[in-house]
Amino acid sequence: MLNKIWLALVAIGLVVAVGKDVNDEVRNTYRNGIPFEVQWEPKTPAPLGNRWEGNIVVSASAFNQFYGIVSQTEEVRQPATITVVHSGNDLVSLPASDASPALWRQISKSAATKEKLSATIAAKNAERKTISIVLEPIRFVKLKAVTQAALDFANTAVQLALGLIGVMALWLGLIKIAEEAGLVYLLTRLLRPITARLFPDVPADHPAIGAIIMNTAANMLGLNNAATPMGLKAMEELNKLSTKAGTATNAMVTFLAINTGGLILIPATAIAVRAASGSTNPGIIIGTTIFGAFCATAAGVVASKLFQRLPNYKKDLLPETVEKREPRHE
């Protein structure tokens, strides 16, 4: 089901992107093939070789009028390079930068040379010091943006996953050592007074208690991936205690509340993600994370205990179901 939802979202994103691109093509949003008269301010009186450095200057009103927008509020002063071509129209290169208009920066991402717009000079007016440029055709901007975003985030996912390997290997190894050394059993005995109150329906020496403690310990260390197998094991063991398999018991609901609340002491995964993303102080979130997780866990446990006392949420096993699960032997 989840795969179908993701597939539907991807399809919707592509359809919307293509629809916007078709609309831009019909309206000619990027003025493909239309000359644009701009001021040319050269840095030198004449070209040096076949290159001429300078600035293209356009008033905000002229820019807005040409593109049919109102977002440009300042005069455009765009660094540019003219390449003199004796056998044809001269070429203009406009690198995208902070000085470029927002619209040009946007369409430069879909240009033939990324982050750089190219144009040809259609006409020159030496007296007015103006030139008419025709920018390269820009098409399928939204579709290219969606595709590029998918590739960028795929690359980010790989980088984050590689950055997490060390942290996950360390804590998973420590948990395995603790299990082999008998620390899990010791921890179970130490926490027996707490688990007895939280899970009164579960025997103190039941395997479910050990799995719950290991799951909670892994979550408290911020090792969500390490906690998942123990959480599944705990639910499996708790289901064995249920008189009606597949129906959530009070113990299951309480455990789910604790697990969802995410009681945590060391948010190792979050710290590793922040470190892999270049954070200068990845551990600054520890205090606020502990407080927020404690409040969420406490609220979940209190809510589960309160609802367990309400008659409408108590479900008794039907007699015929018992007979089906435990046939009588005469």
Shape descriptor: elongated
Question: Which oligomerization state do the chains in this entry correspond to?
Answer: single chain
The domain count comes to 2
Measured as a percent range, the helix fraction is 40-55%
How many distinct beta strands? 6
Characterize the biggest β-sheet. 6 strands, antiparallel, barrel
What structural class results from the helix and strand content?
alpha+beta
Radius of gyration: 33 Å
Q: Number of helical runs?
A: 12
The spatial strand order of the largest sheet comes to 1-2-3-4-5-6
Features of this protein?
alpha+beta, 12 helices, 330 residues, six-stranded antiparallel barrel
Give a short summary of the structure:
This protein is an alpha+beta fold and 330 residues long. The protein contains twelve helices and six strands.
What do these coordinates show?
The longest helix is centred in the middle third of the chain and has 40 residues, at 141-180. The chain has two domains: 31-138, no CATH class; 151-325, no CATH class. The protein is built from twelve helices and six strands. Strands 1-2-3-4-5-6 form a six-stranded antiparallel beta barrel. A hairpin with a 4-residue loop joins strand 5 and strand 6. With 330 residues, the protein is an alpha+beta fold. It has helices spanning 2-27, 60-67, 102-108, 141-180, 183-190, 192-198, 207-220, 224-241, 250-261, 268-276, 286-308, 319-325; strands spanning 36-42, 51-58, 76-83, 91-95, 116-125, 130-135.
